[in-house]
Amino acid sequence: ADEDRQAAQRAADDDGRTARALRAERSEIAGAPDDVPEADADAPKASLPALREAYRAASQVYEKVGVGADLRAEQARAESDESAARAELDRLSNKVRTRAEQLLQSPDGSDGPSRQAAAARAEELVQLLETRMSTASEQLGRLRGETERHAPEDAEAHTELPEELIPRDAEHAQALLRTATAELAATTEALAEARAAHTELLEAHRAAEDAAGGFDEIAAMLRDLLREQTPEEEPEEPEPYPGTLEEARHSAAEARRSLRGCAADLSAAEAAVREASDVLVRHANSTRYEQVRTPARQQIRELPASALPEHAQKWADAFAPRLRVLTDELAQLERNRDSIVDRLRGLVESALATLRSAQRLSRLPEGLGEWSGQEFLRIRFEEPDQATLTERLGEVIDEATRAAVKKNSDLRRDGMSLLLRGVAAALQPKGVAVEILKPDAVLRAERVPVGQMGDVFSGGQLLTAAIALYCTMAALRSNDRGRDKHRHAGTLFLDNPIGRANATYLLELQRAVSDALGVQLLYTTGLFDTTALAEFPLVIRLRNDADLRAGLKYISVEEHLRPGLPQPPQAGETVHSEITATRMFKKPAPSAP
């Protein structure tokens, strides 16, 4: 029963869904009644698909014979236009309607094109009439304005006319007007001629006044140019010129030209004197001469510029012997400066030669791989010519001289400082570039600028490079002392270098460089690194011994480690210097007083 109930429930659910779907489909059918009619038992039965097909066919037929939406919209617009036209027609008066009916009955209103052409002609006529009316209104207003403007203010007429000039009508008035206009033109022309003549007379009068003024100016200029004449001198009586007027004018023009030239020369000379006075005052006020306390400088600074030329000769006579003394002193100073510059140039050239020798003496021996025959140091710089070097060294000497007289100057003026500044000035603007070989395990020929050693080298590589540089400097010192043939360039004691450079290749490199440059290396260390110690031919181990009774301490040799003793020298073999004995000197203690 439960299974039947569940099956019935499922069937009822399916029927309900089918009924809802059919109701929705039925609601979409246009014209279907809301209530379902009673089922007629006698009505023929038809299947649902057949009914659906029949409805679809009927809908297609209905759509074919139906009126389109555009026709309905056009119909609505036509009805709206008809209503608007009828309302506009109702607003017109009966007179307008009657005239319209008469026009429609005429030949122009027989058809549409005739009516449009008649309307266009009527519109053009209306526009023409309106234009004429506006023109006439404008002219009428202008004439009224002219009438009001020309009308007299207080009386009926501007003036009283004789009887023969009173116009009888418009034509008579025009004739009188033409006659008056001709007379006015003649009178105006006569007035213009009179004014032109008056203008010419005014110009002639002005030219005469200008000539008189010019003559007065020339006379005043001549009086000013003759200012040197003293009042006590009696002016000579002028003599008349014996020649003609033209010759007198020519002579006067030449005299004026000569006078202008002399006046120009005088002005130029005065300007030159003023300029020289200004230059003298500026020279005396210069900050370079603040320490000068001579009376002449004080007078030059205080006297007016116009009074300076009067004292110029006195100052020139007074300054002449002093100028001669100063010139001799300056010449002597210049000779001393040239001597100092020549000496400094020799020292600078010697220093540059030392730099080149340092590069040459740093050449490594064979048996070092890529380093064989390479120069450990590479020093590059551009040598200046003699003229440039002399000029730059002169600037160095001048700077040192200025610093000597300047207060609170910290510029050192000892010999080494001057030499270093001279070398730096000689190598301007590029300076000197120093490169050094970088020690590594395979001894590649890689060069590094000395300024980058602290960033690129390790601790052992830095120590090895320092030992190589010392050996190079020792060989350079030996070469400067004239002992380049002597292979012993000195001895270098090293304080525990194995603590930083215990690599085998670094120790080999240190010994090879020192052997090539003739420097004896002595290593001291407290480490017992057998790998590092095996590189040395002689190892001496020391110990501290104490004498308890005397309270003294001694350093004793504990043992000798000789991994490889030197062989006896063969015939013709160069023997390096060896330490065979030592001596210690103890300074005696000062005796008590």
What is the end-to-end distance? 146 Å
Shape by Cα distribution: flat
Lateral strand order in the biggest sheet: 1-2-3
Number of strands: 7
Provide the structure class. Answer: mainly alpha
Q: What is the succession of H and E elements? A: HHHHHHHHHEHHEEHHEHEHEE
List the uncertain runs: none
Rg: 67 Å
Percent range for helical residues? 55-70%
Report the sheet-strand fraction.
5-15%
Tally of helical segments? 15
Q: Quick check: average pLDDT? A: 78
Largest sheet: 3 strands, antiparallel
Task: Tell me briefly what this model is.
This protein has helices at 2-27, 48-65, 69-91, 94-105, 112-150, 170-225, 245-284, 295-302, 308-361, 386-405, 415-426, 453-456, 459-480, 504-517, 530-533, and strands at residues 377-380, 433-437, 447-449, 490-495, 519-524, 539-547, 552-561.
Produce the secondary structure layout.
Blueprint (H helix, E strand, L loop, with lengths): L1 H26 L20 H18 L3 H23 L2 H12 L6 H39 L19 H56 L19 H40 L10 H8 L5 H54 L15 E4 L5 H20 L9 H12 L6 E5 L9 E3 L3 H4 L2 H22 L9 E6 L8 H14 L1 E6 L5 H4 L5 E9 L4 E10 L32
Helix pairs in contact: 9-10, 9-11, 9-13, 10-11, 13-14
Structural overview:
By secondary structure, this protein is mainly alpha-helical. Helix content is about 60%, strand content about 5%. The protein has 15 helices and seven strands. It has helices at about 1-25, 50-65, 70-90, 95-105, 110-150, 170-225, 245-285, 295-300, 310-360, 385-405, 415-425, 455, 460-480, 505-515, 530-535; strands spanning about 375-380, 435, 445-450, 490-495, 520-525, 540-545, 550-560. Helix 9 crosses helix 10 (about 385-405) and helix 10 (about 385-405) crosses helix 11 (about 415-425). The longest helix has about 55 residues, at about 170-225. About 10% of the residues are buried. The model has no long low-confidence stretch (mean pLDDT about 80). Keywords: Coiled coil.
